[in-house]
Amino acid sequence: MNADAKTEILLVEDNPDHAELTMRALRKGSLANHILWVKDGVEALDALRSQHAYADRASRPLPGLVLLDLNLPKLSGLEVLQAMKSDPVLRVIPVIMLTTSGRDDEVKKSFELGANSFVTKPVQFSEFSKKIRQIELYWLLVNRLPSAAAA
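^ thats the sequence. predicted structure below, dont judge the formating
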């Protein structure tokens, strides 16, 4: 991906306050063309698979990055991660686990299931915003994605 090409970020976060802070930080960086926010694990997989309420997304490229909370309703972040990494189409999308938890067992399980990164959300907005911008810069500007996942 180059600096001129923009891509979509899928934000999977059930807490509206955390989602708003994340989207605000991402908009500051302005590398993402679009941020799609979904509130639970089932909705995340529907959006990724372009099904049900997201059927109109079938003609759009896959997101270039998924920011995935661990603790979600309906399907947990780990269940979404496992489903993504088991799917030959979705497995190429980088997944960053973004959560308030930093428990070693959750970090280990996330990486075992194929997470690309695990980031603990800081309490202070300025520090949180800085972390989000660093994530965005690396994963959307520095990192090269396979053409199937690139926008």
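The mean pLDDT is 85.
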